[in-house]
Amino acid sequence: MTTHQTIPSADFVARREAGENWHAQMPDDKAMLRAARDLTKDIAEARANIYWPDMLGSTLVGYATLIGAILVDNGWLALALGLVSALTLYRALLFIHEISHLHRDALPGFRSAWNLLVGIPMLMPSFMYENVHTLHHKRTQYGTIEDPEYLPLALMKPWSLPVFVLVALLAPVALLFRCAILLPLGLIVPPIRRLTWERFSALAINPDFRRRPAEGEFRSRVIRLEIGSFIWAWALIASVFVWGWRPLLITLAVVSLTAVLNQLRTLVAHLWENEGEAMTVTAQFLDSVNVPPPGLVAEIWAPVGLRYHALHHLMPSMPYHALPEAHRRLKRELGAGSTYDGANHAGMAVLVARIARSTMRPRG
Question: Averaged in consecutive runs of 10 residues, what is the pLDDT profile of the chain (364 residues)?
Fold first, then answer.
């Protein structure tokens, strides 16, 4: 086993405990970055025989159990089916993350199929993450005001954490309003069209983020997906006049649960300790979170490889099915006490408690 730099050092830990921003001073652990590159070259290809069955199976189970929850009369059984639907549709939905990283020639047809089966029906087509999430991975933008997916939650007020999670309950109603009302209004009123695109077309948590206009082939794809989302949104609204309120309300409740699950996962995807400075790759890695085995619960709340979120920041293009093996190789090569070990955490409860404690720390 080779010797690798161990970060954070006692100096950086002391700075963090004192409430100082240590990210800007964090040097890159070049040995770790080199190991991540060299040890995983043979597993870096997206495998269609894993992606397709996983996405299609999750989608099928999600919709089947949703229909069951709508049709059954037994309240407890309906609740159980709704929970299974939320969990499996949540897994299916999170393939939007993989789509944002897939090379355009990888998995032909996968993005289109996902949009037809998941993105449009859940009113979250892939363009809401494409050309947005990759900004979060830019070396000079991560953790800054230009990062659409970063808020310094650990440095905010304690009440901001429950608000951050609970606001996700409103996501399905907001998405329905966006697709059914704002999209057609935008065709008539240009300022509304601009506002809808800049502020409400991206799955972002940074309120200061403004999306740039879509161009070229991407713009054409956006238009097609927006038309599909508009038609589906009004089909959902019209369903009330055919089948009553129950199917729509149960569907909205299931999507609300998936949104809350995703928001909880987002809450513990990072330590959220950066104050806006540009960071090295190693600093970004240590501000991100792995929740590796042996625990199994993380595979439920962080599926499709997202339990290895810190590792994903080292290798953004690594397919989700390869991350467990990549983690094992790096863990074995770098050893306990290495920089790599610094991003591995025990679970959601530990991480929420850590962030909550940080919000209560006095600041100058």
Answer: 49 56 74 94 96 98 98 96 98 98 93 98 98 93 93 93 95 97 97 97 95 95 98 98 96 97 97 88 93 93 97 96 97 90 93 93 69
**Number of separate domains in the chain:** 1
- Domain for residue 10, yes or no? no
Q: What is the pTM of this model?
A: 0.93
Give a yes or no: residue 74 inside a domain. Answer: no
- Number of helices (H) and strands (E), helices first, in the chain? 18, 0
pLDDT one-digit tens code per residue, 79-114: 999 999 999 999 999 999 999 999 888 999 999 999
Distance CA 326, CA 18 (A): 34
Q: Is 13 within the bounds of a domain?
A: no
Domain residues for the domain of 264 are: 23-45+123-363
In a domain, 102, yes or no: no
Q: Under 8 Å CB-to-CB from 166, ≥6 apart: which residues?
A: 260
Sole residue written with tokens 């989608």: 59
258 near 169, Cβ under 8 Å? Answer: no
